[in-house]
Write a structure and sequence with these properties.
By secondary structure, the protein is mainly α. It has one domain (about 1-295). It contains 13 helices and no strands. Helix 2 packs antiparallel against helix 4 (about 90-110), helix 9 (about 150-185) packs antiparallel against helix 13 and helix 12 (about 235-265) packs antiparallel against helix 13 (about 275-295). The protein starts with a helix and ends in a 9-residue tail after the last helix. The chain binds protoporphyrin IX containing FE. Protoporphyrin IX containing FE binds near residues 9, 139 and 143.
Length: about 300
């Protein structure tokens, strides 16, 4: 179940990363006007990457469904009956909506991955963008946020914002690394579009980190009855472990940003350095693994 949850979180943050790169880092205002062909090539590649996220997300959702059924079911009753029962619960409804949402997002990315379609319908990205955004609220409707006894809708809204911020930072960095690897030997206009995206990424990462901190602190306050339960409960200790790894990821991110700014100041093209981006990504996946375990852990009820 934790592995399936991690797979879903990785897929969600990845799909949000593809969308963020498309609209924020490589939008029409970025790069030279004469790179329309290059832009379409980059956008088609990006949509192809988004499609992979959609398929992985579906695998994660199926795994979560099976895991929930095995946890939920009465061992003495036929499993199909139990599955029907589970699908009729609020959790089951949210899970079905997640499956539909993930399938629609994958289809949306598939359509947007066709340069011919992008040529005729440049806004083809709008559909996967909207559905991926809505899908980022799946964890809120199946996790502790919707189960919170107070400020429920604020908890759901901030939890969704938390997942979108995680995708805008970690997902976008992952997408940039893959595009960088793919375009290293690629056409110069595509490479220059990618370089033009690098400095913009630091602003996105900064805004995402701030959103993660605020929404994360709120969720911590909401789910922890006291500061002491940070150490006295399994949920609290997992949260602490997560925050420690997040701080290391943030420190690496800052080091990346400083090396980019040094290059910019030296008049060099700000290129992505895999040597620092890849460790940041690996640690970020560790954050998602720890998160997958801790959102499956019941928050403490007593201080
Ligand atoms: C790179 C940074 C981070 C990433 C990638 C990340 C990712 C996530 C994800 C995917 C969820 C699951 C949402 C759900 O299942 O409802 C989550 C939940 C949460 N995160 Fe983060 N997060 C990050 C930073 C933080 C920080 C800095 C804090 C604390 C200050 C934090 C505290 C929480 C809490 C309390 C929850 C709710 C858990 C629950 O539902 O019980 N996160 N995070």
């Amino acid at each position: 179940m934790n592995a399936a949850r991690w797979l879903l979180f990785a897929a969600l943050t990845w799909m949000v990363g593809c969308v963020t790169f498309r609209w924020v880092l490589s939008g029409p205002s970025v790069g030279r006007a004469d790179s329309r062909g290059a832009r379409q090539l980059l956008e088609a590649q990006l949509a192809g990457l988004g499609l992979i996220g959609g398929v992985v997300g579906l695998a994660g959702l199926v795994g979560i469904g099976v895991g929930q059924l095995l946890q939920f079911r009465d061992p003495y009753s036929p499993i199909l009956d139990e599955a029907r029962l589970l699908l009729r619960t609020n959790w089951g409804t949210a899970w079905k909506a997640g499956l539909v949402g993930c399938t629609l997002t994958a289809i949306g990315f598939r359509v947007a991955s066709r340069p011919r379609i992008l040529d005729r319908a440049p806004m083809a990205w709008l559909f996967p963008t909207v559905v991926a955004g809505a899908l980022s609220f799946f964890p809120s409707f199946t996790g502790h946020a919707i189960g919170s006894s107070r400020l429920t809708w604020l908890a759901v809204a901030l939890d969704g914002a938390h997942v979108i911020a995680a995708g805008s930072w970690i997902g976008t960095l992952g997408v940039m690394v893959v595009l960088h690897l793919r375009t290293r030997s690629g056409a110069p206009p595509v490479r220059s579009l990618l370089s033009a995206a690098v400095p913009r990424f630091s602003k996105v990462a900064l805004a995402s980190a701030a959103t993660l901190a605020v929404s994360g602190l709120f969720a911590s306050w909401l789910h922890l009855p006291s500061a002491g339960s940070l150490l006295s409960s399994a949920y609290g200790r997992l949260l602490l472990a997560k925050v420690v790894v997040v701080l290391i990821v943030a420190a690496l991110g800052r080091a990346n940003w400083r090396s980019w700014m040094r290059r910019v100041r030296a008049g060099e093209e700000p290129e992505l350095s895999l040597r620092s981006a890849v460790p940041e990504l690996i640690l970020a996946q560790i954050v998602l693994v720890v998160t997958a375990v801790f959102v499956g852990t019941a928050p403490p009820t007593t201080p």
